[in-house]
Specification:
The complex is a heterodimer. By secondary structure, chain A is α+β, with helices and mostly antiparallel strands. Helices cover about 40% and strands about 20% of the residues of chain A. In chain A, the strands form 4 sheets. Chain A has a 5-stranded mixed sheet with strand order 5-6-1-7-8. Classes of the chains: A alpha+beta, B alpha+beta.
C-alpha cells in the first residue's frame, strides 16, 4: 500500500491563538509583534485580516501600522504558543501514532495505518480540521501526499490557497500542478540556489525535474541529487520522532540588543550562554566533548581535554578560543554549543584535581533555579549593564513568554 | 535514476526548533512512554484482595502484576508475608523475593502448579 502522509499547518499560528483566546479580537486585524512599544519591532505573525492589508510576517511594526492604522498589536506569549503546539501534537496522535513535529505550527503525520479505522485520507483530514477547530479554535490546512516533500508542497502551495484547506498531491498530479511553478517555490531552494538554477536555464520545477541528473550531481553532489528528487516528487524520509529522543548537541544563541564593542562586555554574554548550555547539559546528565562558539558569521570549535558540563571550564576554553579568532569588530550575535555528548555517569577520574566541589556546585545552582525560578541565583557579572540574564529569563526564543 | 536514502536528514537539517520546544516535546514523549496501570474500582480491588488472601491461606502460587519505576512488572511466587499496616507484601520464588507495595498492584492471578 502506498504511504499517505499529511502535513498539518496552522494558519497564522501566534495571531490565531491570540484571537481564539480573546473573542473581542475576532473581527479586527491583529498582529503579534516582538515588542509593541518599539516601532522597529518585527511582526511575528499577522492574522488573515491583517494580511489582507498587505502586512507580511517580518515586516517592521511601523510599516504595518502605516498599511493599516486600526491594527491591534499584541505582545507575544511564547509559553502559550509552545503549550498549544504540544496540545496539537496530542490531538494528531489520536489519528495516528506517527506524528513528527516539524516546527511550532507544522507537523507531519503518517496515516497509512489509520485509513481502515477513520476512512479515506480526505475524510481523515476533514475530521482533523474539525477537531482542531472545536478544541483549539484554530484553522488547520492539510497537505496530503505519498511522502513528506509532496505533502509539504501540497500544503504550502495549494492547501493554503484553496477554500477547503486540504489538497492532495500525488505523483500523477505533479506534472499538472507542481511542475509549472517557478523554481523558488520548491522546497529546499532558497534565494541563492534559485539564482544558480536560473543561470543554468532552470526556471520552473518541471525544468529541474527533467534536467540531467549527472550535471546536477556534478555541480552540487548529494544536494543536487536531493533537489532533483524533490522536483520529481521523490522522498524516502520516514515520519520519525527519533531526533527528539537523542540529544546530539546543546546550544544557545542570542541576538544582542545592541552592538557589543569590548571584550569585557562580550565576556558577560558568553558566560551567561555557557551557564545556560551547561545547565541544560546537567539536566540531561550529559557531558560535552566539543565546545563551539559562533558570532556574526564566524564559527570556531575545539575539543576539550575531557568532557564537561561545568560552566566555568567551558567558558574558559571558549573564551580563549574566541579571543584568538575575534577580529575586534563589534558583534551583534553570539552562540555557544556543546556537542559530542556523553553520559555523566562515566566520568574520567582526574586523581589530583579537586574539582568535585565545582562539579556539584552546578547541580546545586540548577536545583535552586528549578525551585525558585531562573533568576533565583545569577552571577554578579550579569548585573553589569552588558548582562542579559535577567531579561533572557523572561523570554523564549528571544520573545516574551 | 539514482535515489538516495538519507533517512530523515532532509527534514532534520531544515527544522527550526526552539530549545524550549524541543525540551517540552522530549518530556512529553518520555511521559507517554511511562506505563499507566488501569484504574481499578472497588470490586476489582476486592477481587485482588481475595485472590491474595486465598493465595496466602491456600499456599498456592500467585502471579502479581505491578508497576515499578513507571514500568509494568510481574512476579510469580508464594506469598510469605503481608504487612497490612504498611501496605506491602512479600512474595518468594525459591530464593528470590520481592517486596511489593499494595498501591502498585493492578492485577493478580492464581497459578495452579503443574
Amino acid at each position: 500500500m502506498q504511504p499517505v502522509i499529511f502535513l498539518v499547518d496552522i494558519q497564522s499560528f501566534y495571531a490565531s491563538i491570540e484571537k481564539a483566546d480573546d473573542p473581542i479580537l475576532q473581527y479586527h486585524p491583529v498582529v503579534v509583534s516582538s515588542d509593541p512599544e518599539r516601532p522597529n519591532g518585527i511582526i511575528l505573525a499577522a492574522c488573515p485580516i491583517a494580511k489582507s492589508y498587505g502586512i507580511q510576517n517580518a515586516d517592521l511594526l511601523w510599516e504595518a501600522k502605516q498599511k493599516c492604522p486600526d491594527l491591534v498589536v499584541v505582545r507575544p506569549r511564547m509559553q502559550v504558543y509552545l503549550d498549544t503546539s504540544i496540545e496539537l501534537t496530542k490531538i494528531l496522535e489520536r489519528f495516528s501514532d506517527q506524528v513528527e513535529p516539524y516546527s511550532i505550527d507544522e507537523q507531519f503525520m503518517d496515516i497509512t495505518g489509520s485509513i481502515k479505522l477513520f476512512g479515506a485520507p480526505r475524510q481523515i483530514a476533514q475530521q482533523i480540521q474539525t477537531v482542531i477547530q472545536q478544541e483549539l479554535h484554530l484553522y488547520a490546512r492539510i497537505g496530503i501526499g505519498p511522502n513528506k516533500v509532496l505533502a509539504k508542497m501540497a500544503c504550502d502551495h495549494f492547501a493554503k490557497k484553496n477554500k477547503t484547506g486540504i489538497f492532495g498531491l500525488d505523483k500523477e498530479k505533479i506534472a499538472e500542478h507542481l511542475w509549472p511553478l517557478p523554481i523558488e517555490k520548491m522546497f529546499g531552494v532558497g534565494p541563492r540556489m534559485s539564482r544558480h538554477l536560473r543561470q543554468m536555464g532552470i526556471r520552473t520545477i518541471g525544468q529541474l525535474a527533467s534536467f540531467p541528473l549527472d550535471r546536477l550531481k556534478k555541480r552540487w553532489g548529494i544536494n543536487g541529487n536531493v533537489l532533483w528528487m524533490t522536483a520529481n516528487g521523490i522522498d524516502l524520509s520516514p515520519v520519525s520522532t527519533k531526533s527528539f529522543e537523542q540529544q546530539k548537541s546543546i546550544g544557545h544563541m542570542m541576538t544582542l540588543p545592541r552592538r557589543y564593542h569590548t571584550a569585557e562586555e562580550i565576556q558577560v554574554i558568553m558566560l551567561e550562554l555557557c551557564e545556560e548550555v551547561c545547565r541544560r547539559a546537567r539536566s540531561h546528565h550529559l557531558l560535552g566533548k566539543t565546545g563551539q562558539v559562533t558570532w556574526d558569521g564566524c564559527q570556531r570549535q575545539l575539543t576539550l581535554s575531557h568532557p564537561t558540563n561545568q560552566t566555568i571550564l567551558l567558558f574558559r576554553h571558549l573564551w580563549d578560543l574566541f579571543q584568538r579568532h575575534w577580529d575586534g569588530e563589534p558583534i551583534r550575535f553570539l552562540g555557544v554549543q556543546l556537542t559530542q555528548l556523553v553520559s555523566d555517569h562515566h566520568v574520567q577520574l582526574s586523581l589530583f584535581e579537586q574539582d568535585h566541589k565545582q562539579f556539584s556546585l552546578g547541580y546545586v545552582m540548577d536545583d535552586l533555579k528549578k525551585r525558585f525560578g531562573p533568576t533565583a541565583i545569577i552571577r554578579a557579572i550579569s548585573l553589569t549593564p552588558a548582562g542579559q540574564a535577567l531579561d533572557r529569563a523572561q523570554k523564549i526564543g528571544g520573545h516574551y513568554k | 535514476m539514482s535515489i538516495l536514502n538519507r533517512q530523515n536528514m532532509l527534514w532534520e537539517g531544515s527544522r527550526m526548533f526552539l530549545p524550549e520546544h524541543r525540551e517540552k516535546l522530549q518530556k512529553y514523549y518520555q511521559q507517554s512512554k511511562e506505563f499507566v496501570p488501569p484504574k481499578l474500582d472497588e470490586q476489582a480491588l476486592e477481587e485482588i484482595n481475595r485472590v491474595i488472601l486465598e493465595g496466602l491461606e491456600g499456599e498456592h502460587p500467585l502471579l502479581i502484576y505491578y508497576v515499578k519505576n513507571k514500568k509494568p512488572q510481574q512476579f510469580c511466587g508464594f506469598i510469605v508475608r503481608i504487612h497490612s499496616h504498611e501496605r506491602w507484601l512479600k512474595i518468594a520464588n525459591g530464593r528470590i523475593t520481592r517486596t511489593i507495595h499494595f498501591d502498585t498492584i493492578y492485577r493478580v492471578e492464581k497459578k495452579v502448579p503443574l
